[in-house]
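Person: I have long wanted to understand how a fold can be written as tokens. Underneath my words sits a plain record pairing an amino acid chain with its backbone structure tokens. Those tokens are not coordinates but codes from a learned vocabulary of shapes. I should like you to check that the lines agree and flag anything odd. The protein I mean follows directly.
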Amino acid sequence: MRGLLKVSQATDVGLVRELNEDSILVGPKNVFVVADGMGGHVAGEIASHIFTATAESKLSSEDTALDQDGLRYLVIDGNKAIFECTRENPEKSGMGTTATILHLEEGAAFWAHVGDSRLYRLRKGELKQITSDHTYVAELLANGSISPDEAEDHPNKHMLLRAVGVDPVVKVDTGELPLENGDMFLLCSDGLTNMVTLSAIQGILEAEECPDKAEALVELAKDSGGLDNISAIVVEYYEE
């Protein structure tokens, strides 16, 4: 692609957890991945790392289109790899991961998504969530059963309805967006968005004096309590 990309990335265990179950990838072919593992001690870490390793291997060894279908199959391949690991290691039963993938090419951004990690786009002062959370609370919020204030403190806030690797088949959300000069994308785990307000996130993304935006976001989440693992990838697009 003729455009220029500026990328920053950061992941941190946070201030409470013993292990970092997040895994991130700034991969070949302008592909970016955030995966947040789940499934108990060690298993979540394994699931997220299997996912990013599988994606990196596929991207490095295969010359396939990375449109919506291509990214969907990246997720499906990761799902198969995690599920097979569980079959061979029954003690890891139930492990899985979220998966949020972004690919930029000439004039377009493609994404694929499962779980409650998120993709945002900042364009002309508007920070927009592109992906939808696959959680019980998000579903209640969508059908009007609870209010946004009730969602913030709901006891089942972290209950996922969809994850990668838990079942032999996974449903993947995908999409395509046009690219404009100055577009900025944020991929992040919920360890960021549960600790930091969207206005604070936007403030860092828009701060010209902040060269490493991903690291600044992670540090802000830690300053706010750091209750979970925290991961962020910030991708800035500029036309030449």
About this structure: The CA atoms of residues 201 and 217 lie 7 Å apart. The chain has seven helices and eleven strands. Residues 68-88 form the longest helix (21 residues). The chain has a mean pLDDT of 94.
